[in-house]
## 1
Amino acid sequence: MEQPCRTEHTVSVGADMVPGMGTEVVRYKYRLRPDALAERALIEEWHRCRFLWNEAVHQQKTGRKPNFTKLGTMLTETRARSSWLREGSQVAQQQMLRTYAQALDASFTVKGRGRPRYKARKKALPSLEYTRRGFRIRDEQLVPKGVTMPVVWSRDLPSEPSSVRITRDSLGYWWASFVVTRERQLIPAVEEDSRVGIDWGVTQTATATDEQFDLPHAEYRRRCSAELAKSQKRMARRRRGKGQAPSKGYQQARRQVAKVHKKAARQNRHDGRAWATRVVDEHQLLAVEDFKPKFLAKSHMARKAADAAVATMKRELVERGRRAGRKVVLVRPAYTTMTCSGCFARAEQPLGLGERIFRCWACGHTACRDRNAAGVILAVAERGHTGVDDVGHWGPPPSGGGSGAV
Ligand SMILES: [Zn+2]
């Protein structure tokens, strides 16, 4: 069940598509809307599973070396004794112990992975896993044992799900993540020499060598950052001194801040997917500035939001490009803004941040600063390098076309 845990949007199918191979296993995630009763049932189910998990941790700590077989026996015996456990779903309880056994195994074999720890009543977020025989979908509702709740079917399931994970996030929202099989998506065929360079920025999230692939900084993010500033101020006002319990109002404000963050992140992801799909669909070579968040992170919120947006977009683009079998080259950002995309001459001084136009002292090439940088990034990748420094300043352009700079 190795699957990317992010869900995807379907690629629009054009005439010149080549079929991908076979099927793939992915997760599709939906919002759940349990009523108070259903929510209580889910929480109770969670506490039963949590109890079993903690029991397994205890066995491990007292040297009894639990494994899935031993834990299975333990479950059967405990369920026979306890009517409280019997009220719950055997499937969810088994899955919890299976997850524990896997986590324990991984802690021995995967470097840096710690032993599974106790799940505290107040801190651990609910997560329940059901295999096919542990749940049903009836009248559009999700029905694990003892619970019935509506699902927000934001899109159709591509197949019968083989399992579902029900979780509650830090904001108190419930989600169902189904494991499904679907046809591998069609990837459009592209010209071998279609290529694009991408430069990241603050005023415009992505500037491409071809302006129709620019990604402007979305308006809602600015709105979000205003909203965020407001709720953060409220949080600061309500903060109490050290050693005092936080007030109700403070906790409320903190929740509000988390909500705004999550909303913006979700929107970013959505935008990033649509844009990345478009870029990947039409190019064989993707030369991408290897942006590291610290590069731009300075003080104020808008910058940080822009940073986060860039990080999300970059990840989307790189992952999607690699999955589609495109050539993705990450180019170090050093000197990209002070090098000419036409002749590769490097300016003595970096351009000031306010300076929007790049003018080459050597060949007279003039371009918008970010577009020039995108051109340099592409030119570096075309020459088989990953940094401006690797390229001779006067390196001739590769045969069959220039850097594509405007
Ligand atoms: Zn030049």
## 2
Amino acid sequence: MESMGKEFVRMENICKEFPGVKALQDVNFSVCSGEVHALVGENGAGKSTLIKTLMGVHQRTSGEIYVEGKKVEIPNPIAAQELGLAAVYQDVTIAKHLSVAENFFLGRLLKNKIGLVDWDRMYHETQAALDELNIKVDARQLVHSLSAAQQEMVIIAKKFFQHSKLLILDEPTALLANDEVNELFKIIQTLKERGTAIIYISHRMEEIFKVCDNITILKDGHTVTTLKTSETDENDLVSKMVGRDVGDMYSIEHFPGGEVTLEVKDLCAEGRFEHVNMTVRKGEVVGIFGLVGSGRSEIVRAIFGADPVDSGEIILHGKKVDIHNPVDGIHNGISLLPEDRKTQGLALGSSITNNINLASYDLISKLGFINVGTEKQKAQKYSDKLRVVTPSIAQKVINLSGGNQQKVVIGKWLCRESEIFIFDEPTVGIDVGAKSEIYKLMEELLSQGKSVIMISSYLPEIMGLADRIMVITDGGKVMGTLEREEFNDERLLRMASGLETA
Ligand SMILES: Nc1ncnc2c1ncn2[C@@H]1O[C@H](COP(=O)(O)OP(=O)(O)OP(=O)(O)O)[C@@H](O)[C@H]1O
Ligand SMILES: [Mg+2]
């Protein structure tokens, strides 16, 4: 906080209207050099819109923007870049078939005196930037050989290398494992010391309290207030964001001990996972914990029928079943909320109504005719329960905020009313208020005797909700299963890193 310098960007009375939606109304926001400033608020509050207005992606309806005290116009993203503004969006864009150095110099390759591309100098300068930020990546490495986390670090390093004076991180930790988050925080610290201004958007409270100096809260397109991090706490912040007390959101009622619904016996798929055994009872939440990329998603995809297996059995209600594709999975009463929701879950150009019913049309149609009344009623029900922020359920999903799009995918699978719900990282990108709604919905399902399998890399969530946690390490190797009374965050992390078995 001591390193905080002069005000770098100031946004005054910003308004932004989309057809039928006032996304921003008289928003005031500013950030100083060397400051990490959090931008928080519920899904649909206007965070991404504010950032896109600053970055020249959207044009504001009214209001002023100042950079280093000078009033500026930012008609497009190139103008933003020229002013020293840079943003790392959640769906990172980087050329995967090129090396790290080529990505750094994309579009402006260095030439030597006789006009040839000067590879040595490019590698050298790129490596220097990576080293300076302590990023353990070789400048010559191809980007597609890097982990998602490393790719994100490389993008940040590139912005640093381009002398950006402001860096915006929109939910940067969504795809990162715990130790990678710590790496990211170190980089943020270095950039801060260099005087870079940083805007940090996240739904994870403890991250905000770890790295941010100040916090601005948006609600329904308005600025609620700006606070010093040292003068507030999680409860205070959440109640200002949500407008009500959320309480201890991870404590749900547990209903263990019902009859067995699903048994997985020695499921193997070469190169993806091996010897997976699992028993799931009515009313139970079975957690699967593992680092991103460890093979946890592959396991649940196979149970659902989305991927083939080499050997093993899936037993439902005591009977062995053959599940070869997702249609088999759905007809056997299994739903899967996939991790990669943008590509696997939504029809972006269609309405909320359409999307929520997408997996249930066979249940509400007769002789090829859809019961339109039921369709609307179900869509309204789940849209309300999940508090989707929208003028109407006729709205196209593409126009919703990121978090609200995710709520729609969750609504789609709840609407199917299956027996077994598999949730792969259900709350990434979802605001605290909506998270607690989702947990309440889960609790409701469990009380009706349904079962849940949940993948989460977020420890407070999985430890709070699961009755049992199976831990996976690299290559889909099962390190063991812990019962609720054995849960311990350090132990779970050690097991996930392959250092310890149960
Ligand atoms: N292109 C668009 N057309 C119509 N409405 C839009 C468009 N983009 C955003 N909106 C609306 O503007 C409001 C603010 O959305 P925004 O994406 O800024 O929210 P956010 O705070 O980033 O939420 P999240 O945490 O879910 O990402 C929402 O009501 C959203 O539906
Ligand atoms: Mg957003």
